[in-house]
Amino acid sequence: MKLYSWNINGIRAALRSGDLLNFIQQEQPDILCLQETKAQPGEAIIDLPQYYEFWNSAQKKGYSGTAIFSKTQPLKITNGFPENIIKKFQITGDEFGDPNKEGRVQTAEFDKFFLVTVYTPNSKRELSRLKLRQKHWDPGFLAYCKQLEDSKPVIFCGDFNVAHTELDLARPDSNHKMHGFTDEERAGFQAFIDAGFIDTLRLFKKGNGFYTWWTHFSNARARNVGWRIDYFMASKSLKSKIKNAEIYPQILGSDHCPISLTMEP
Fold first, then answer.
1. pLDDT given at position 93
2. CA distances in angstroms from 60 to 121, 127, 159, 255, listed in the order given
3. Among 44, 75, 195, 237, which residue's Cβ finds the most Cβ atoms within 10 Å?
């Protein structure tokens, strides 16, 4: 079983260019999770009869959003956090809006696991959304995944908008304390590891150079001056079933590249 995740950064543009359909035809994912779809229901028509499609669009047009395409019909699809998580961690928004209305979390329940795709709020260049991340979103998302894990193993994937360690970006020294590499955001990600979840790529790839996002400036992608901010995480109980994890920097169509997780059925 091959699971893929991709921050597509605008699904309509990726469809017009042909990059998304070419990718799906080439890789034939069993399940594909997308982030930053930037489309309302009906705005992006995809002819993929072999897939069940599930969308969680932002209320604001042309912004955020997630989607799951699956060859297997899930037992259940849930959009957003449950009310108990929203209430406990006070995930109610800030001056930029309510993240619960931005289509950022989508969960598919299958027979043997939950699959969660997430588009984590960016803390912004001036760190104006760092408090939301540190105090509310990151601990709330972790608690949600642990709550799901009480029932069955969890895989969660997507754009976490943080490079976890200095190995996860090309220039850590010049980016320390910048958005996406603050101590607070990195601690939020470390909490997933401390809670027992596995950063699946690190089972197979060590060291630096494995990046999933590049700025459009200074030919950064061609020079591989990037950041790894997209991840597949999994419950420790699934470790023996995980056979591979990859990134695909050669696949174009977004400022992010796809990532994958291969598992035993």
1. 84
2. 15, 22, 19, 22
3. 44
pLDDT band of residue 12 (cuts 50, 70, 90) is very high
CATH number for region 2-263: 3.60.10.10
| Residue of 51, 119, 144, 231 with catalytic role | 119
Residue 118: phi and psi, rounded to 5, are -140, 140
- Residue showing tokens 């969890």: 154
Please check the confidence at residue 41 and state whether its pLDDT lies above 80. Answer: no
Per DSSP (E only), the strands in the chain are: 2-7, 31-35, 52-56, 66-70, 76-79, 105-109, 114-119, 154-159, 197-199, 230-235, 242-247, 259-263
Question: 40-63 burial, b if ≥16 CB within 10 A, otherwise e?
Answer: beeebeeeeeebeebbbbbeeeeb
Catalytic residue check, 159: yes
Cα(234)–Cα(157) distance, integer angstroms: 9
Domain ranges of the chain: 2-263
Q: Is 99 helix (H, G, I), strand (E, B) or coil?
A: helix
Report how far residue 154's alpha carbon sits from residue 89's, in angstroms, rounded to the nearest whole number. 21
Which of 51, 138, 144, 159 is catalytic? The answer is 159
Residue 76 near residue 105 (C-beta atoms within 8 A): no
Residue in 108, 24, 25 with CA at minimum distance from that of residue 66: 108
Pairing, β 52-56 against β 66-70: antiparallel
Segment 110-148, tens digit of pLDDT = 999 999 999 999 999 999 999 999 999 999 999 999 999
Confirm if 252 and 3 have CB atoms less than 8 A apart: no
